[in-house]
Design a protein that fits this description.
Length: about 220
């Protein structure tokens, strides 16, 4: 680790979405770095404050969530109340330098801004599947036909990883205590069975050739 962080201006972590794990990694990194080095996290559902505190330099810490850099240049920036203006400007400058467009979340909230919009779609998709109203294929067909995309919500969740989707939903549920935020049992079962999506070759679809990439998928 000492070799990896030698002479750096920024250390940016992207370990799995678990507060305890991220905090452990950031604490270790923060203890090894010079005080002027910036630190950041790609956390998608964990707020900036606990991570910044874990790093030992909350004034030089920020959350910057990349959705999918191969498909979209969008990143969401979320500082905490302890993040300095200089750090915010650095984060925006770094984003621009690597070809990204920054969406600045002005106040710290669980899930940023766009991620919360995506979560509404994700939650409703999971609810309808859980209660047997529709199928992954028909949800994705409707989405793709309506918005002209090459993938729908179920395909997106497969790409994210259903184990990650489950972890994020549990973070929201733990935060709110609201039963409506509790992830459905069928999602837990899929993850237990190793159906994580593209990573394991099976999720809502089977890979490497999911049905939604077939030229006939949208032809009815």
């Amino acid at each position: 680790m000492n070799e990896a962080i030698e002479d750096v201006q920024l250390v940016f972590e992207n370990v799995p979405e678990k507060l305890e794990l991220k905090s452990k990694v950031l604490k270790e990194l923060g203890s090894l770095l010079p005080p002027d080095v910036f630190m950041g996290s790609n956390a998608s559902s964990i707020t900036c404050s606990p991570l910044g505190i874990a790093s030992g330099r909350p004034d030089r810490f920020f959350n910057l969530n990349f959705s999918d850099p191969l498909e979209s240049p969008m990143v969401e920036l979320m500082p905490s109340e302890l993040t300095s203006d200089a750090t915010i400007q650095f984060a925006k400058g770094w984003s621009k330098a690597i070809g990204m467009v920054t969406i600045h979340v002005q106040k710290e909230q669980l899930g940023y801004s766009f991620n919360r919009l995506w979560r509404v779609i994700k939650q409703e998709t999971l609810r309808q599947l859980d209660q047997g109203y529709t199928t992954p294929e028909d949800i994705d067909k409707a989405w793709m036909l309506s918005f002209g995309t090459n993938i729908g919500p179920c395909g997106i969740m497969d790409e994210i990883g259903l184990h990650t989707v489950l972890s994020i939903e549990n973070i929201y549920y733990k935060e709110s205590g609201d039963e409506r935020d509790k992830p459905p049992k069928f999602l837990e079962k899929m993850v237990e069975e190793g159906k994580w999506g593209t990573l394991k070759g099976e999720g809502f679809y089977t890979y490497p050739n999911p049905s939604y990439v077939d030229s006939e998928f949208l032809k009815g």
